[in-house]
Design a protein that fits this description.
five-stranded antiparallel beta sheet, Lipocalin, mainly beta
């Protein structure tokens, strides 16, 4: 799955977020699927902090991502940590019911690259081959 964040000026404080399938699918899948409902929040103006909150209605799991937008090595990234929680089964299970892990979300320009490739491919096919 891929997280698509629409961070236009009109939706800056509460950007639209959707989960889309990757093409081709990755070898290993993360925990997010279309069964999760996800939303984003940018709590502060002119700040790079972003919050993602996801809910899975069937399993009653909650996932929260706190991250920071950065440009690292000429690549736009959101670096942060996920906390995934479920209802604990007992007092001893309290700490086990929460998982924490780091994640890096990278900006993916596949659509722009595909459009450029298509444009160049069409331009190349329109040539006559004569010099």
């Amino acid at each position: 799955m891929q997280i698509r964040i629409d961070a236009t000026n009109a939706t800056y404080q509460k950007p639209n977020v959707e989960l889309v399938d990757l093409e081709p699918p990755p070898r290993t899948a993360g925990f997010l699927s279309h069964e999760w409902s996800i939303k984003a929040d940018v709590p502060f103006n002119h700040c790079s902090v972003i919050l993602l909150t996801a809910f899975h209605a069937n399993t009653k799991k909650i996932a929260v991502f706190v991250g920071e937008c950065r440009i690292c090595e000429n690549e736009e990234t959101i670096t942060g940590s996920w906390m995934i929680g479920r209802k604990s089964r007992s007092c001893k299970d309290r700490e086990e019911s929460h998982q924490f892990f780091a994640d890096v979300l990278r900006k993916n320009n596949v659509r722009a690259l595909q459009a450029e490739h298509y444009r160049l491919g069409v331009a190349a096919s329109n040539t006559t081959g004569k010099f």
